[in-house]
Amino acid sequence: MPLPIFQVDAFTQQPFTGNPAAVCILPSEATAEWMLSVASEMNLSETAFLVRASEGFHLRWFTPKREVRLCGHATLASAHILWERGFLAPTAQANFDTLSGRLTARTNGGWIEMDFPARFHEPANPLPGLVEALGASPHYTYCRENTYLLEFDSEEIVRALQPDFSALSRLPVRSVIVTARSHVTDIDFVSRYFAPAVGINEDPVTGSAHCALAVYWGKRLGKTEMTGYQASARGGFVRVRHNGERVILCGQAVTVLVGELAI
User: What is the pairing mode between strands 189-195 and 225-230?
Assistant: First the structure.
């Protein structure tokens, strides 16, 4: 039986910007091997798979190489599709059971608000080879579970980085978040996200990274509500609100492709 599949640009209002994700609605659980094959076929940074459950939906995310524990933009894309295509009533809250626990989403004034776990990084020494792979030295270095968060002295440095992804992939690093304070009035910080170890050289807009950025910049700027811009080639905006152990990620989304999986 054909299965509905959608492609959504997340953290944007403009098609062909933001971060594209595929969303596949399943009638029942599928094997991890099959979902990985579909994600590889879609060849996007993440493909989301949804199965209706008693209190919402089971949600899993796959890159073309592996399953991941948390993905913001594909969750945003999933919530957008559930409301747009009538799987949920427009005023209903979307509940997702995931490898990172229960996640929720709701609409608010044309934006989608998602309740995610906060991520806390600790000060660390730069990993040998990391500065050379990035081509620039950070001002501050933090780490959590092989994910590095690096603050640079200026937005211009972050935007100009041209990492050696081959060298970066050989390091014991899952991913690297690079960031700097923004000089634009209505943007608090900019960032980029590199993860060749999981098959994504540069992710266009990364919701899960903002679970850490909200905590980090909240402390640095003395704020609980901020706006971040991920300065990839496609680019996208993420509003964040830090509240203790949780972070509210706010974004918009647009559907760009509707189809069916024949297999």
Answer: parallel
Q: How confident is the model at residue 197 (pLDDT cuts 50, 70, 90)?
A: confident
Are 65 and 144 members of one domain? no
* Helical spans, DSSP H, in the chain: 32-42, 72-84, 130-134, 155-160, 165-169, 207-221
How many other CB atoms are there within 10 angstroms of residue 49's CB atom? 27
Write out pLDDT tens, residues 207-250.
999 999 999 999 999 999 999 999 999 999 999 999 999 999 99
Q: Are residues 240 and 134 in the same domain?
A: yes
Same domain for 13 and 88, yes or no, is: yes
Number of folded domains that form the chain: 2
Give the span between the Cα atoms of 210 and 219, in whole angstroms: 14
Q: Give which of 124, 72, 59, 133 is closest to 98, Cα–Cα.
A: 59
Looking at the structure, do residues 107 and 136 belong to the same domain, yes or no? no
Annotated catalytic residue 46: yes
Distance of CA 39 to the CA centre of its chain: 16
Average pLDDT value over all residues in the chain: 95
Q: Which of 29, 33, 41, 46 is catalytic?
A: 46
